[in-house]
Amino acid sequence: MILDGNTYYAYPAPKDMASSSSEDIHGCGLSLRKAEYIQQASQLIVDGKPDLEHMKIHKRPEQIISELDDIKGIGVWTAELIMLEGMQRLGALLADDFGIRQVISRYYRDGTPIKSAEAREIAKVWGKF
User: Fold this and answer.
1) CA angle 84-29-36, nearest 5°?
2) Is the pLDDT at 41 greater than 70, yes or no?
3) Burial class of residue 42, CB neighbours in 10 A (0-12, 13-18, 19+)
4) Which residue, 38, 55, 46, is CA-closest to 14?
């Protein structure tokens, strides 16, 4: 969007992504497979499956992760990122992220490699931060 001579960028709405072709999305620098996943997931959201607004009220993060993980192309890492960024669930942890596990390991396990489950267990004491 251009406003007062300044260009502002925003994420496109799901309906815009759903109506785009996979090739158009691929042209933004994503692999064709990821572009297909994004287009298909956008169409599901437009169709109300899943209902992201309803997901925000789920108490258990595992329930949100499970519902999002059912969508082709969305795994645990992406579901946790959606919770953190899109749903403002500050207690979400990208525990499957190797870099995050390395940092947690460095400060809590003297650098000994840890698995996702252990990272989540350590992070429980942090609360929503």
Assistant:
1) 70
2) yes
3) buried
4) 46
Kindly state the tokens that stand for 17: 């992504």
Kindly state the average pLDDT of the residues 98-119: 95
Give yes or no for residue 26 having a pLDDT over 80. yes
Question: What SS3 class is residue 3?
Answer: strand
SS3 label, residue 6: strand
* Spatial distance between the Cα atoms of 95 and 116, rounded to a whole number of angstroms: 5
Its pTM stands at 0.75
User: Per the omega criterion (within 30 degrees of 0), is the bond before 50 cis?
Assistant: yes
Find out whether 28 and 16 touch, Cβ atoms under 8 Å. Answer: no
Amino acid at 51: D
Q: How many CB atoms lie within 10 A of CB 41?
A: 20
Counting DSSP H helices and E strands in the chain, the numbers are: 8, 2
